[in-house]
Amino acid sequence: MFSSSQLVVGVDIGSHSVKVCQLKRADKAYSIVTLGSAILPEGAVDDGALVEPEVVASTISSLFKNLKIKNKKVGISISGYSVIVKKVNLAVMSEKEMEDHIMTEAEQYIPFDIQDVYIDFQDLKTNKDGYERTDVMLVAAKKEIVDDYLNMLESIGLQATIVDIDGFALENTYEYSTPKTENVALIDIGASKMNINIISNGMSVVARDIVVGSRQLTERIMGQFDLEYEDAEALKLGATAAEDKEKELQDIYSSVCNQWILEIKKAIDLYHSNFSDSPLAKLVLSGGGSKVEGLIDYLNQETNIEVEQFNPFKNMKFSKRKIDPDYLKQIGPEMAIASGIAIRPSAI
Ligand SMILES: Nc1ncnc2c1ncn2[C@@H]1O[C@H](COP(=O)(O)OP(=O)(O)OP(=O)(O)O)[C@@H](O)[C@H]1O
Ligand SMILES: [Mg+2]
User: Full-prediction pTM beyond 0.70?
Assistant: First the structure.
């Protein structure tokens, strides 16, 4: 049994909003303690980097206060140009030998100066009997970017004991919610990026971040109708009526969604060209962008693969007195990454 204090609070700092999720674990199941999100001012976070750390800090601080979260140990997740995830094939060796090898050879795998990055790795232990080589997942993240996050959190009394990667967090939460081992593509469409992670036989085989997202829709609407950001966002979300703008809006949606679908198809093609004997069973969508009306059906038509919207809380208990089930259902897709961070124990 783990108590809630041993799980970190998952904090997903996106370019549109911060999502926070706190879970509790009993036996093998998780239940939700609390969760919530807060919108960030435009430009406070850009391409995975903190542009305005004070603004982000005060947003997170208020969110923790509102949600009455006392736990100071948090986990965050990073993505974007400052992170490199790479699978390399190495000779089988002990953990210590592998660490020495990676630290001396890292420059051949990573396009950054070794002094400037934090490096982590995991032996996937793919060596079968008689083979002397194994796949190793290598992660390098720019110190400068990671330290900015750590310092920002420290300024509000929070300690980040886990720095996760968006794609891994997504995989983590999906595997908890769906223990079957099908081949799936996990696709998180946020405001400014799309993260695609294809899992085959329980392993990530295609992983990429692409700079597209729901913010593109907002920007196109701003341009087309000469609107301010907030007004365009409201029109996009249907909070203000489309009226005579319906046709033009549809055109914007089609053109942007077609671009997303093209990127998704490219990743699927890459997967199928390497794993032609194990076809993808499903596409699982998360992130605010996955809520675009009609996207799921359209993607299904275009790929002929089953598409579903991800609900990370499907198998989790919660108090209906504290958390409105409708809110939970609505926020579920955006909470995918935060929930994936929140199932990590704080002591690793
Ligand atoms: N129903 C909807 N239709 C279209 N877009 C939506 C809808 N609901 C939310 N969004 C958009 O989803 C985005 C927010 O999603 P999310 O919280 O996943 O992004 P983020 O994590 O902050 O961004 P990123 O990960 O790209 O940095 C916003 O652009 C928001 O307008
Ligand atoms: Mg996001």
Answer: yes
